[in-house]
Specification:
alpha/beta; disordered C terminus; 3-stranded antiparallel β-sheet; 396 residues
Length: 396
């Protein structure tokens, strides 16, 4: 177990005046003003620009957006799964016990696996091709001292394989990764991720490489495991259908920021940000004639080319002069919602970004995506993520 120093609620707020949890003690993981910056060959990229987010036990919070919006970088920054060229700012507090961004390497080793676990996007890349599935599960259990002996670890590994829906756990236990189907490999990495009953589970596009039938099975398994374990979950996806299927809350990301946040049914049923509406409008609809599919014009901003004002303004059909002059802040909306759009403010001619609304307060005083543009509002995430150091990006 980690021995992080206790951090008070006041220390984890985004600003002295903000109170994102308002006394709610159910928050498992709290992000405040998270920034992630990559530096390489003279280029500095601000991939995550001031994200605030709270995760709660038994709930699935979804980060939704296009590729390059900062979803995966946000998720992996929580576990600090990037190399020396990455730097972090803000706070990531687990169970109110301390800031993970200030923890040392040994402390982080005690966090990864028992406290926070990752289900990677590509199980083939996460699994060791030269070792049997059972040995990889046993290694995690023994490394984190989750069982008293090797025999107990084997018994627990077989139990886990059965819990994730593998019909013949003994055979899969003895199998190499290449001997399994894509769906079976995904179930194996889920078994590894949940082996130590983590408090927080991060799922990075867990169904991307699966066909529709297997995807539905994995999502059903995912929800049943969460209901049983009570873990807080952060799920990263670009698939609106996946977000609708399993999400309790949704944060829509664009250019390294959360631009809309709220209960899943309300965000998808009544989107308030133009980007969220554009994402939903681009979903193919039965009955639409060929050639009439809607798409979002333009491309997401690339590294070092974030436009002034709202990052989505060059692609937004509703943009006006204020959008191009000032970056909008997140404002409270009815129904425990947040959105960052000038169209939602009372005076569209006012280009002053200062507002009396507390942009970090969550829709139900439990979660508050940040409204700030980050330390450098002229840079954004590159579409190519910096890989993690060898051996760090794994299911445990």
């Amino acid at each position: 177990m980690t021995t992080l120093t206790t951090t008070s609620d006041a220390d984890t707020d985004a600003s002295p005046d903000s109170s994102p949890t308002d006394g709610d003690n159910t928050t498992t993981l709290r992000l405040r003003d998270l920034h992630t910056t990559f530096s390489s060959r003279g280029l500095t990229v601000h991939a995550v620009r001031g994200v605030d987010l709270d995760l709660h036990p038994g709930e699935i919070t979804v980060l939704l957006g296009e590729s390059g919006s900062g979803k995966s970088v946000t998720a992996k920054s929580i576990m600090r799964l990037y190399g020396a060229n990455a730097s972090f700012a803000g706070t990531v507090v687990l169970d109110g016990r301390g800031d993970l961004l200030a923890a040392g390497p040994k402390e982080m080793l005690s966090v990864r696996g028992p406290e926070i676990a990752l289900i990677p996007q590509d199980p083939s890349a996460a699994l060791d091709p030269l070792r049997r599935i059972g040995a990889q599960i046993v290694e995690v259990l023994r490394q984190h001292k989750a069982v008293p002996s090797r025999a107990a670890a084997k018994a627990r590994a077989l139990e886990l394989l059965g819990q994730v829906g593998i019909p013949d756990p003994a055979r899969v236990y003895r199998s190499f990764p290449h001997e399994l189907s894509g769906g079976m490999r995904q179930r194996a990495v889920i078994a590894i991720a949940v082996s130590c009953d983590p408090r927080v589970l991060i799922a990075d596009e867990p169904t991307t490489a699966l066909d529709v039938t297997v995807q539905a099975q994995i999502l059903a398994l995912f929800r049943s495991l969460i209901d049983r374990m009570g873990s807080a979950v952060l799920l990263v996806t670009h698939d609106v259908g996946v977000a609708e299927e399993v999400g309790d809350r949704i944060g829509v990301m664009y250019a390294g920021r959360i631009v809309e946040y709220g209960p899943a049914a309300e965000v998808l049923g009544d989107p308030r940000h133009p980007y969220t509406r554009a994402l939903l409008d681009s979903i193919p609809t039965p009955g639409v004639e060929r050639g009439q599919l809607r798409s979002i014009t333009g491309q997401p901003p690339v590294s070092g080319e974030l436009p002034p004002g709202c990052a989505f303004a060059p692609r937004c059909p509703e943009a006006h002069d204020r959008c191009r002059a000032a970056d909008p802040v997140l404002v409270d909306l009815p129904g425990r919602r947040l959105a960052a759009c000038h169209l939602l403010t009372d005076d569209p001619d006012d280009t002053d970004t200062d507002t009396d609304t507390d942009s970090t307060a969550g829709p139900d005083s439990t979660a508050g995506p940040d409204s700030t543009g980050g330390p450098d509002s002229t840079a954004t995430e590159t579409s190519v993520e910096t890989p993690a150091p060898a051996g760090e990006e794994s299911a445990a």
